[in-house]
Design goal:
The chain is an alpha+beta fold and 227 residues long. Helix 3 packs across helix 4. The longest helix has 18 residues.
Length: 227
């Protein structure tokens, strides 16, 4: 397995420019295709440098192929070496895969300022994805004890968060139009044989850029409702 080291942020692939929705306490940034390791380090630096006046942000991006293992993740959930970089990261959860065609949205939030508990945040994130799918006629749901969003038994969105001094980072990945085959080389999120799906295969005709904008909108709606 190749280690994933520091890399460049990559070029934009058509995502919108930075924006803050009207009357919103959230800034939404569309970063394009970024290096996972570098984006993670930027989240750590952003969170460490926060003040009481720092505006909360959502970072929308895609990543080059990478496997990420959560802080307490078990290496045995990696079943085969595909030559894809592996990053031991500091989010919660087990192993997952990120790649082109998957939308990742990182939530950099001051939970104390929002008076938001982690369980409430997870519910809000899941609901944003559920609402997005419902807009396109797809019924999605939660599975008790297994954070994320599912259509039937198949997982379409995965969650992982890190909280430091009342502020969080990391977030949600939504499979949109990607190569799903690397998931067969892992136990997704630590569940052997867990099937995965994506919005394209569910009949939703959204590009990753469109899905990122739509999901960010639903996240803003959920988070502003909590204020």
């Amino acid at each position: 397995m190749k280690p994933a080291g520091e890399g460049g942020a990559g070029d934009s692939d058509g995502f919108d420019s930075d924006a803050m929705p009207a009357a919103s306490s959230l800034r939404v940034r569309h970063l394009g295709c970024t290096d996972y390791w570098q984006t993670w380090q930027e989240m750590v630096r952003f969170t460490a440098a926060r003040s009481d006046q720092t505006v909360d942000e959502l970072w929308c991006c895609q990543h080059a192929p990478v496997l990420t293992l959560g802080q307490a993740g078990k290496p045995e959930h990696l079943l085969a070496d595909l030559g894809i970089p592996l990053v031991q990261t500091d989010r919660g959860g087990q192993i997952t895969y990120h790649g082109p065609g998957q939308v990742v949205i990182y939530l950099l939030l001051d939970l104390n300022r929002r008076k938001l508990k982690v369980r409430e945040l997870v519910t809000a994130i899941e609901q944003a994805a559920i609402d997005l799918l419902a807009e396109h006629g797809v019924v999605a749901e939660r599975h008790g004890g297994a954070p994320g969003v599912y259509v039937g038994v198949a997982k379409v969105a995965a969650l992982g968060l890190r909280v430091r001094k009342g502020c969080c980072y990391h977030g949600i990945s939504l499979n949109v139009a990607m190569d799903l085959s690397p998931f067969a080389a892992i136990n997704p999120c630590g569940y052997p044989g867990l099937p995965v799906t994506q919005t394209r295969d569910l009949g939703i005709a959204l590009t990753p850029a469109q899905a990122a904008t739509a999901l960010a909108g639903h996240l803003v709606e959920q988070l502003e409702r909590k204020r």
